[in-house]
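Here's what a typical entry looks like (CCA tRNA nucleotidyltransferase):
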Amino acid sequence: MSEATHDLELLARALVALNRQGAVLREIGGLFAAAGHDLYLVGGSVRDAVLGRLNPDLDFTTDARPEIVQRIVRPWADALWDTGIAFGTIGVGKGDDRLEITTFRADSYDQVSRNPQVKYGDRLEDDLVRRDFTVNAMAVRITADGPGDFIDPLGGLTALRERILDTPSAPEVSFGDDPLRMLRAARFVSQLQFEVSDRVRRAITEMAPQLGRITVERVAVELDKLLLGVDPVAGLDLMVQTGMGDVVLPEIGGMQMAIDEHHQHKDVYQHSLTVLRQAMELEEQPDLVLRWAALLHDIGKPATRRHESDGGVSFHHHEVVGAKMVRKRMRALKYSKQMIDDVSQLVYLHLRFHGYGDGKWTDSAVRRYVADAGPLLPKLHKLVRADCTTRNKRRAARLQANYDQLETRIAELAAKEDLARVRPDLDGNEIMRLLDIPAGPQVGQAWNFLKELRLDRGPLDHDDAVAELLAWWNERNAEDEPGV
């Protein structure tokens, strides 16, 4: 197929995608035409239309200033947002569609922060050249008749056909203006399965330290989008190999130095990428917590690596060290407490199954496994299975069979007792009544004793639970008596 024919097919696909949004495009195009202003669909919306996957979040640009945009759309819109008005953007809600309309921009940057000195432009071409990548610098004129002329002054269609990310201007200028664009390149590699141009790779490698200018909140958003992409491994590898990882997630690149104990992988880094891929294969839908845990599950290995006398390598307690490292890094990136707790707990628990052996755990051990995982148990199942990357087919089959057996035992116990919510057989009020004590630390200690008993022995009859509690209380008080 010739390049020209291929381009025509891409444009035809874009038209089909745009026509699915034809009603809203014709309506808003008519509003701006009646007011004497131009309106263009731009950026990721045009790119995604060419890729045949346009969604209801649509980006537009116009020569109208923000206050005029508000005046044009207010009678038509279901909702308006002006949170981005300082940057020339008005948000519009119309039915299920979410539109962002931004006045032509011709910004300049201070080369210190990533905040532009907002300057409105008068020409579409000036707006397009300031965008991050040429595949995001295409536009479609929108009129009362719907989609009109396709505008591509910077070769975005060619770049999209060749699946290449390149910058409209020199990458050094583009990344100097906004270093976050370097991390966006890795994100787009993951989401779109594109590659970066040679000059973009060189510029990122040289300028990666400038990511230090970006707020950690914005970095975290890009990392999440990267991890949720179609091919996060490719995006992560670009990040690590160009030095961006040293700035935003140094623990990942640090794993390249640690050979794993089985010598099955070049390094722990490659093993972790394999686990991430395998975890994704087990998902019902993209799972950010699982993907973070798969990526970070072995970050404690470099710090715990020991060379043994027999020539082997060990990483004792790397799951404990790794969980602490996860907490430290994710706190630095200002993730939510829930996200930090979930990912670090999965990292902490990922090795426990290997003590299961050939099904020799007691029911108590199985209960504790379930109780410690809590609502994360389905994710832990996937992480543990994904962590089996041995090339020894017999060993891999044995590990999977053992985990099948563990899941069967969990299901059998769950059929007999409430494993999802392991609680003592007596509540706090009954503990206070039976022991004749007020609310305070002693109640918590008694509650913990009963919970441990519940984990060891399963559910108890009420009378048995009372007897155990009283026996524990009497023995505890006897130990505290002087001379005993």
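The chain has four domains: 3-162, 164-248, 284-420, 423-480.

More examples are in the samples folder.
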